[in-house]
Specification:
The complex is a heterodimer of chains A (114) and B (117).
Chain A (H helix, E strand, L loop, with lengths): L2 E3 L4 E5 L4 E3 L2 E3 L5 E7 L5 E7 L5 E3 L5 E5 L4 E6 L8 E8 L7 E3 L3 E6 L1
Parallel strand pairs in A: 2-12
Antiparallel strand pairs in A: 1-4, 3-9, 5-6, 5-10, 7-8, 8-9, 10-11, 10-12
Chain B lengths: L3 E4 L2 E4 L5 E7 L6 E7 L5 E8 L5 E2 L8 E7 L2 E6 L8 E8 L9 E2 L3 E5 L1
Parallel strand pairs in B: 2-11
Antiparallel strand pairs in B: 1-3, 3-8, 4-5, 4-9, 5-6, 7-8, 9-10, 9-11
The chains are: A mainly beta (114), B mainly beta (117).
Amino acid sequence: AQSVTQLGSHVSVSEGALVLLRCNYSSSVPPYLFWYVQYPNQGLQLLLKYTSAATLVKGINGFEAEFKKSETSFHLTKPSAHMSDAAEYFCAVSVGSGTYKYIFGTGTRLKVLA
Amino acid sequence: GAVVSQHPSRVICKSGTSVKIECRSLDFQATTMFWYRQFPKKSLMLMATSNEGSKATYEQGVEKDKFLINHASLTLSTLTVTSAHPEDSSFYICSASGPLAGVETQYFGPGTRLLVL
């Protein structure tokens, strides 16, 4: 069975500081991993995904994530936080099984301080 | 690319009535669509998975007679909440995936806020 753990339900950073959102997964087979962002009262927007190609994945809005198999991690980073990055971030794992259902983490709310 | 729309964005209805929510993939063929429910400040809960032309597969604990899902075409799925009650009030989000957009990747709609009075 697959699972996802997001450490830290709330993360605060100063504008211009490094953003680090943590995601650890558990999967018995090679996973697909995703990061999504959700702004209030909106759906989820795909930031980036890992699908067994390059382990360092670059996404939109300056975000990137590195797949580390030895650590079973897929942490999301951004070198310099912007006020517009304040949102809820979800990590998800999917395993190829025909329908590719997602297992979501519990989410991390990012707050950016001026 | 890979845009998913939902309609309506917000709906208020009286207890006992039925409400239909549409989910459309605008620029790709969605062979699979998913319906989620999200409670305030919570993660998404998968309700059901539907493949075009097939009956939906519901997650454990989801009443299939209450939440009717239809996926009649490669670009449209509908969720009908039948005999809605206040406890059905929630944020409903659909997602879609397809071979050209990446079968392993889900693209999400903007969500529908349902309030049952």
